[in-house]
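Q: Could you fold this chain for me?
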Amino acid sequence: MIKSAVHPLLASLLPPTYYSIPLKSPPSRSFNRFYCQSSSKNNNVKNSVQQPYFPPLFSVAPMMDWTDNHYRTLARLISKHAWLYTEMVVAETIVHQQDNLDRFLSFPREQHPIVLQIGGSNLNNLSKAAALANSYNYDAINLNCGCPSGKVAGHGCFGVRLMLNPTFVAEAMSAIAESCDAPVSVKCRIGVDDHDSYSELCDFVYKVASGSPTRHFIVHARKALLNGISPAANRKVPPLKYEYFFGLLRDFPSLQFTMNGGVTCINEVNAARRHGAHGVMVGRAAYNNPWRTLAFVDSSIYGASSINVSRRQVLEQFQLYGDSVLGMYGSNKPNIRQLIKPLLKIFHSEPNNGLWKRKAVTTLRHCKTVKAFLDETLDVIPDFVLDSIPEEMPSCCEHAFADLDSLLPSPYNIEKMSYYLCSTGGNGEGLTGAGY
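A: Sure. Below is the predicted structure, expressed as structure tokens.
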């Protein structure tokens, strides 16, 4: 396991309780105690329950056009304890759709624990968006500082481009936290273009944490390339550098870090946890193979009871949800294709999966309800596939990350950053290091 060490200079600057970041204000929310409860700022709370949740040891990544309400409903039917993230919602969308907020922010209460991810680069709109989302009672709010899409990081000037301005990110996180009751977090990459050294990554984390209440970072262990490469290629071309992630664990022991990028199975999640990761976020594996990925989260990661249900039972429950929301926001909003989309992955690698998908394409041309779709297509899936429950976790690399200790970058030069922060009153203004 990666060991953490408190830098003596930092320890001398801080109260005994907080060890590695000169805090703007003491952290008021613990990573290990997340609650979904009524807002003290708005009595008109939707989806309100009083219930503690397990910490986010495992979470499903926010993915545009994928992690919508329909996928999250399916995911929650398979795992009761995985933390679910929304698609990124742009702050301006929330602000300008105040008469139609349910379409963008509402979710079934069964989806808790759930995190809203927002994007944007306007402080006023980020603050307003967080305030408007507050009444929906999300369990946390996350700022997107990792999306490399040209529409987001290019024309939009947010997403991963925000990593080049950590002072602004700290201000944004403070504004978001001030406007809502939920814990806040940042999702980022390990670097951007040529700003990809470990020291620059640490500078970003240090400045954001020292200038805001942010204590949780979800780190995609690849850098982003903003010129001449697609978002899909940005998930594959830049190499994974898990040693940067584990370096952060060592150098910032009072912060919480969730690892993201390249993890494809539960054994790898557990391996990362054994080596010190506070949590692991899984993206495409949880979407492209939801049954084999999510069905083992509760038992293997949380030590809780497994779902003990079959795919047939999950589909029956999803059908009740799907047909109840068809056209809820007007004609074809949502439509049958949107509702069926996440189901198309549930028989991944099973017998007749290809045949079922081909029949699904034909059936979607004329069916009007989820029930009709399932009635017409499931006959091609063998009963043993439909009725079996998860019993044996798929095998994959159980020894991932075992050799990373020798690859860890040199410890962060915290003296320089501490000097700058102290000389600027701790707000990061005037910082000139690391190319920012």
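A (continued): The mean pLDDT is 84.
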